[in-house]
Every structure is written in C-alpha cells, then in structure tokens.
Amino acid sequence: MRITVSLILLAALVGCETMQVAELDPATGRFPSSTKATVVTTVDTDLDSMKALLLLPDNDFVKGQIGNIHYFDETMTLDDLEKYVVQNDLQDKIPSVRDKIGINTAYKEYRPFLWLRFDTRMDGNKKFGQFILTHPETLEDLFVVEKHFDYTWAGVNDQNTWYPMFNAIVDYIDENSQTWAPPSTAVAR
Description:
six-stranded mixed β-sheet, 5 helices
C-alpha cells in the first residue's frame, strides 16, 4: 500500500511543471521563449482608452505575468470582482460574474474594464489553450491567441506554452497602444 501511494505521488510530482512568473527581458521586451503562439483573432483598437482595469482569471501565474507587462492600471480577478459585488450589496444588479451575461452586466453596473479569459478548444486529438481578450460591453473578442498543449514532445510549461501566449499579448498591446513601452524603455511614444 505504501509503495502504491509513493509511486502515485512520485508520478504526480514528475508530471507537474513549475510555472515561474517572469520579467520581460530588457533586451527584447518579451518573456523568455524560443517558440511562438498562433494569433487567431486580432482587432485593431485603441487599447489606451481601455487600460484602466483588466479582469483576469483566478490564477496567480496569469496575474503575475500580466502585472509584469506593466500596461494595465489595475487588475482584478473574478474572485475579487465577486467579493466587491457582495461587499457593496450589488447582488441584485450583478447576480453572477461567471458567465458572459454576468460579465456584461458587471461592466455596465460596476465600471468599464477589459476581460482576459482562458479557454481550451479541441481540433481532432489536439488540445489548444487560448487566451481571449474581450470587450465586455459588446462581448467582442478583440484578441485570441492559442498554443497547442503538446504533452508528449515539447511539454506544457511556461517557456513552451505560456510565455509565447503572453508574448503575443505583449505584441498586441505594442501594436494597439500609443503609450506602452517595455519597462526598460518605458517612455511615451
């Protein structure tokens, strides 16, 4: 019995990849990665007018990575938004923030924000992770980036999977902002 439990624990630990919150490389202005993610959707927009608040998934890694981009004035997780709704007695106006209609309602009743969410999609046997940047007022997806979850060969980890998607988000910000620059060169353009 002890051997079985030990083997299960060992297998779980070996299968886990550690995700490190990284800083942008001062030389490149991007996160360290040798691969690229696939941009599925990109809509030209004035991001500077929407950077006051970004709503994020409940994930410390995502929050850390987005924070290290140094673009959005404030970030808030879905949990944080739910707490705000309850603490300010807004449940009648915003009954949920866990679906698209609830996010749209929160946008109208709380304050404007952009919404970054994570999703997956299947293409045959292949699973893809996606980050989707949505404008909650219209529920238009402004930006969608994805990366194949290659569990067999490359592995699903920060440098092969996550950093490339965050780099694509940095590229999108760079292309749609007049004020953003990598932290080492943070001078208004």
